[in-house]
Amino acid sequence: MEHRKVRGNGIDIHVAIQGPSDGPIVLLIHGFPTLWYSWRHQIPGLAALGYRAVAPDLRGYGDSDAPPDISSYTCFHIVGDLIAVITALTEEKVFVVGHDWGALIAWYLCLFRPDKVKALVNLSVPFCFHTTDPTVKPLDVLRKFYGDDFYMCRFQVR
Predict the structure, then answer these.
(1) Is Hydrolase among the key words of this record (predicted)?
(2) Parallel, antiparallel, or unpaired for β 117-123 and 11-18?
(3) Helix-strand-coil split of the chain, %, nearest 5
(4) Relative to the CA of 115, which of 2, 93, 96, 155 has its CA 20 to 30 Å away?
């Protein structure tokens, strides 16, 4: 497995890569609060099947840069980072696999840049938007259904 940094979207993005350089890319997007490492068992399997498995650490995670300003962590920034990774590795569309919070980012990638995505598989989350009411905060909905001990609620700064 190769580890390298891709410079793009104003930051250095760490990626773990395994598989033939001419193989179709499978972009593996980790969840919260994990890293590329959560894909460590799938990467060799995909590589053995002829795919080029690419697992980045998203901005603010692991060995990728962590800009200090909270406004640098919008879905647009993170999708921009993934586009930088894709562009650095191929001109082709890629397969995308998202897990947990990474699934939400994967959906945004597909919505914002369908020209870069061949197919999408998401794990551990349903596709849904809970409300069209802009006054309802997603975290409040999660707290209501799952309680304060739900991991997304527990990891909040108060």
Answers:
(1) yes
(2) unpaired
(3) 35, 25, 40
(4) 2
